[in-house]
Amino acid sequence: MAQVQRMSRLMIKTLRDDPADAETLSHKLLVRAGYVRRNAAGIWTWLPLGKKVLENVTRVVREEMDAIGGQEVLLPALLPKEPYEASGRWDEYGDLLFRVKDRKGGDYLLGPTHEEVFTQTVKDQCTSYKDLPVILYQIQTKYRDEARPRSGVLRGREFQMKDAYSFDTSDEGLAESYALHREAYQNIFRRLGLDFRICSAVSGAMGGSASEEFLAPAAAGEDTFVDCPECDYAANTEAVTFALQPVEGQDHPALEELDTPDTPTIETLAEHLGVPASATLKNLLVKVDGEIVAVGVPGDREVDLGKLGEQLSPAVVELVTAEDFEGRDDLVRGYVGPQGLEKVRYIADPRVAPGTSWITGANKPDTHAKNVVCGRDFEVDDYVDVVVVEEGDPCPKCGAGVKLDRAIEIGHIFQLGRKYADTFQLDVLGKEGKPVRVTMGSYGIGVSRAVAALAEQSADDKGLCWAPEVAPADVHVVAAGKAAQTELALEVAEKLGAAGVRVLVDDRAGVSPGVKFTDAELIGVPTVLVAGRRTAEGVVELKDRRTGEREELPVAEAIARITA
Ligand code: ATP
Ligand code: MG
């Protein structure tokens, strides 16, 4: 017997108008349909219907984690600072961390994620290679003092996360644990009915699949990702790398200097010469660990300093300042060219390939040079893809023009390696009797965020529209209003309930049929059954919330259809 929830007894207050502070669709609809209620910025109450959806998502996540051998635990959310001090994150997290003091003045925090504490747990519980591999997970409340907790439960300061951690004795073991999670995540998001893409989160530097994000395309998303309309390629904007394609067999005229007064920027230069910015080579000077380095990109492209930093990490990348030019006569600001830049390391984007020809600075004031050919007039020390990716750039996999889309990050899988194991000296006794350092993975899913992502992707102009697996009920039975209609509605609801169907039945007295229908659409249960004008004949109307298709059927047939 599944639950039959009578709306006359359900604590629900639907709203006709969007809350004033709501910016995203999911925020508006989840509040209006009575699923959640805001307590403070980024802090939410899950009301009865919302709690059901959250539970359904949690159940799917738990089932799929159990299926890969994950063991569920529950760690505290209130944590001592020491392990986070040991890992350096007590400081690194800065303002994101909720810090708490106890009565004795001791420092604590509300856990934002739990790598440290899981590492300690395994150090305490596992001593031999025979105890590994282990996958542990929890579904728990996390705390992050987000700078902009604006989008409802999409970005909370208190939120539900499933965080899992794998512990292995070898790199191959870690790769296997990672693959298991990747598979489980796909099963989870498919079952939830989410449209998602798997994106490599970091570029080359850390190795291909060391980290991937699961993104749910949605207008409300705060992440931009690169999506290929022709193949299955998808990646974070920072992770897209353009292949180096040397241009061969072209005969370039000799390098020629041009008098170009007052043209220190690409715009002024392009205008003066009447050429497109893409014909020019822009050379940005930056400091890498204090040393001046030139970075060459086509004049019409922007340099992504974050991407550059990521590629050169752990080096620190900074912009140059006027003082850096003191005593550097070789660097003519605004007129830098890679030819004859002997004392400076030259990094270039792969678009500046061997055999390409450019207009660029001549390293003299008010002078540029044309026919400056890569490989003939200058050499590139290192190729690093550092430009901001743009719509229409070629897909690294199939070459088609890519699109830039917005998405919500719903999950993240990450091969951590031995970082935390080193911090906490997590070793187990190996086969040969010697200690072996453990290697770890960490895997997160935003459980409460997934509810908002589902709402974003499935809602229409009438309201929410849940997939069966996550919906707060299977069927929404509406009694149009008269006593006989309510009687039939309750009777049908009981029969469905007895057959294991989860039912929400709108038996409210004194509420007009119009309001009930509008509420049913707003609440978004997949199937709506109406006891309306043909109640006396024992005929009800069955409606598909998603397609709007409706059909009149005798009660018994309607029940048979639903329970089939
Ligand atoms: P974001 O870039 O959106 O801040 P993150 O990279 O900080 O996310 P992780 O540390 O990888 O997130 O956390 C794992 C998962 O937890 C994320 O993939 C996301 O789904 C979820 N999550 C992270 N922050 C929040 C939040 N403030 N509210 C709700 N869910 C969150
Ligand atoms: Mg992340």
TrEMBL record:
Keyword terms, alphabetized: Aminoacyl-tRNA synthetase, ATP-binding, Cytoplasm, Ligase, Nucleotide-binding, Protein biosynthesis
A GO cellular component annotation in the UniProt record: cytosol
Keyword Protein biosynthesis appears in the UniProt entry: yes
A GO biological process held by the record: prolyl-tRNA aminoacylation
Reactions that this protein is recorded to catalyse: tRNA(Pro) + L-proline + ATP = L-prolyl-tRNA(Pro) + AMP + diphosphate
Enzyme Commission identifier(s): 6.1.1.15
Major subcellular location class: cytoplasm
Entry-linked InterPro entries: aa-tRNA-synt_IIb, aa-tRNA-synth_II, aa-tRNA-synth_II/BPL/LPL, Anticodon-bd, Anticodon-bd_dom_sf, Pro-tRNA-ligase_IIa, Pro-tRNA-synth_IIa_bac-type, Pro-tRNA-Synthase_IIa_type1
Domain topic, free-text comment: Consists of three domains: the N-terminal catalytic domain, the editing domain and the C-terminal anticodon-binding domain.
Known function: Catalyzes the attachment of proline to tRNA(Pro) in a two-step reaction: proline is first activated by ATP to form Pro-AMP and then transferred to the acceptor end of tRNA(Pro). As ProRS can inadvertently accommodate and process non-cognate amino acids such as alanine and cysteine, to avoid such errors it has two additional distinct editing activities against alanine. One activity is designated as 'pretransfer' editing and involves the tRNA(Pro)-independent hydrolysis of activated Ala-AMP.
Assembly notes: Homodimer.
The family this protein is said to belong to: Belongs to the class-II aminoacyl-tRNA synthetase family. ProS type 1 subfamily.
Protein name as catalogued: Proline--tRNA ligase
